[in-house]
Amino acid sequence: MNQRSSLGNKFYIITGGPGVGKTTLLNELKIEGYEVIPEAARDIINEQVDRGGVGIPWKDNSLYTELMLHRSVEDYMTAKARQHTKAVFFDRGIPDSLCHWVMSGNPITEEMEEAVQKCRYESIVFILPPWKEIYCTDEARKQDWEEAEYTYHKMVEIYESYGYQLVVVPKDTPENRKRFILNHIYDVE
């Protein structure tokens, strides 16, 4: 049941909890010639840290989530305005912002609801499961392993609640993960 987004875009989300190999996989897709829209969250953290700002999860989580949502919508609209001859891959999507917000104990706002309904991606979303053997923290990724697992399960819940069909990408080499995604897209198109 792969229904195209109402806008006819071939916008695919690759998501998952932190430290599951998304960036490495997306780099493989970029090498293959696909457009990749980078994750807004990490850029926002880096920008805020560089500026001495407070819009980071461990200082002002509400501001951080608001920045992440606005940047994700901006990225979507920018991509929508361009002509694409093949699939575009997003490192996380707008529902990821909602997941972060809900995990912080907040109810989804009307603005968030509107954004997730207005900016629809392909109905198939590729999700990478928690993978302890490759998980590590860094300056922007501070979650412990238990929080990384919890994040994955909340993402499944959020994406499914908005009608997305999740396809779990197997734990494998970046090349094999890329092939899995491309084979899946070609099989359903």
Describe this structure in words.
α1 (about 20-30) packs across α7, α2 crosses α3 (about 60-80) and α3 packs antiparallel against α4 (about 95-105). This protein has a 5-stranded parallel sheet, with helices on both faces. It contains 7 helices and 5 strands. It is an alpha/beta fold. The longest helix is centred in the middle third of the chain and has 20 residues, at about 60-80. It has a single domain (about 10-189), classed as Rossmann fold, CATH 3.40.50.300. The protein is globular, with a radius of gyration of 16 Å. The chain has helices at about 20-30, 40-50, 60-80, 95-105, 110-120, 145-160, 175-189; strands at about 10-15, 35, 90, 125-130, 165-170.
* Number of structural domains: 1
Q: Radius of gyration over alpha carbons?
A: 16 Å
Order of helices and strands: EHEHHEHHEHEH
Give the CA-based shape: globular
In the CATH hierarchy, the third-tier topology is known as Rossmann fold
Number of helices: 7
For the record, the CATH class is Alpha Beta
Helicity level, as a percent range?
40-55%
Compute the average pLDDT: 86
CATH superfamily: P-loop containing nucleotide triphosphate hydrolases
Core attributes:
189 residues; alpha/beta; Rossmann fold; 5-stranded parallel β-sheet; 12% strand; globular; disordered N terminus
Give a short summary of the structure.
By secondary structure, the protein is an alpha/beta fold. It is built from seven helices and five strands. The protein has a five-stranded parallel beta sheet with strand order 2-3-1-4-5, sandwiched between helices.
